[in-house]
Amino acid sequence: MRGEGTNSARKSLLAAIALALGVSMLFTGCAGDAKPQTAPKPAAAEVAKTPPPVPEPVVLPTCDAMNAAAHQEYEDYGPENFSAPAGETDLTVFNQVAGEAAKTAMGKAVQQRGCRWPVHMQGAVTGYVAELAEADRASLIEALKVDSGVQASALGDAESFSYTIPADNPMANDTKVTYLFIGDIWVLIFDYAGQREYAQAALDGILAANPSLAGKGEGSAASGSPKCSGLSGNEALGKWGAGISGGPWDLTGQFSDVKGYDECAALSWIVLRPEPCCTRFSITPVLFFHNGEYVSSATSTGHAVDSEKGVQRLSDEELSVTYMWQGDDIAGPANTATSTYRWDEASGTVTRTGELPPS
Asked: 47: how many CB neighbours lie within 10 A of its CB?
């Protein structure tokens, strides 16, 4: 009986163990085959894209703000003397004066405005402002740089190019042409007979209307940062003209010719004329300036400058002066002689070649 009881107890124990193992397998038998559950990966965050800055639109100044110097000169003199007021104008003057490269560029301008200020009985100041695409602007600037008759310089941050168109008769005034480039803006000044300097006023008008352009021009870098006196032609005339012997000279710019003066040029000039002015063969000294500072007179002996050919610019550092003196008939053709003057950087002086009138 004890043996059977023992066997029975063993069988009961084994059955209980087997049952326990079965229950355990019921709850854990698939665990080894199950894959671990992981949290879903969050969607990759999109990289924020910063849009490129939108350029500020170009603003073209109105005529009263485009050139304060020309506008003020008109206010001082024009209303009482001219029936036509200052104001906007079309491209007539531009087409008469501008070269082919400039006309091509103007034909592609994004926008443009022209203004005219009557300032003198013989002429007016006409200004234009245009917005150019980069390629058109670069093409025009390159054409100006390779033109030997055009003088390149800088005015603040603007690139500046200027040249003179001689008058077709001795009683008229030459036309001074100035182009300025800053940002996408092209400024044009055609000065027939003004008595002031207009380039700085034109640049000031552009910067006032487009303040974001300040400090972004390429004028100084493009032109080698030339030294400039900061004086206008009339200021230079008043400062140095009084010291020239043989006067009295006109020191106001009414008769003396300051159109050849350039505050940044290697060699520029002013022609002094008497006060009151003047007979055909009146002595007219030529004063020379380097970077707008007086360096010498053309000759120590006074001569009359030819009324037709006068002084002609050959390059930034070279010019010619044609003198005249009375022939056999005082009313007939004059005798003439031409000298060429050049700024010599090494010696810091003006050198001369060519002819002079007899002493």
From this structure: 5
**DSSP 8-state class, residue 28:** H
Kindly list the domain boundaries of the chain, sorted by start residue.
63-223, 233-354
Of the chain, the end-to-end C-alpha distance in Å amounts to 167
**Strand-strand pairing, 158-165 and 304-305:** unpaired
pTM of the model: 0.52
Q: What is the pLDDT of residues 48-95, one digit of tens each?
A: 555 666 678 999 999 999 998 888 888 888 888 888 889 999 999 999
CA distance 34 to 140: 77
Do 14 and 21 contact (CB within 8 A), yes or no? no
Phi/psi for 327 (5° steps) reads: -90, -160
User: What residues have CB less than 8 Å from 145, skipping those under 6 apart?
Assistant: 152, 161
Helices 100-107 + 134-145 axis angle, to 10: 170
CA distance 322 to 274: 19
Beta-carbon contacts of 232 under 8 Å, excluding residues fewer than 6 positions away, are 196, 197, 258, 261, 263
Amino acid identity of 185? I
Question: Class of 63-223 per CATH?
Answer: alpha beta
Torsion of CA 93, 99, 105, 110, to 10 degrees: -10
Strands (E), 105-149: 111-120, 123-131
What distances in angstroms separate CA 155 from CA 8, 203, 274, one per listed residue?
A: 119, 8, 32
CA angle 153, 155, 161 (to 5 degrees): 40
Q: What pLDDT, in 10s, does the model give residues 305-315?
A: 887 888 999 88
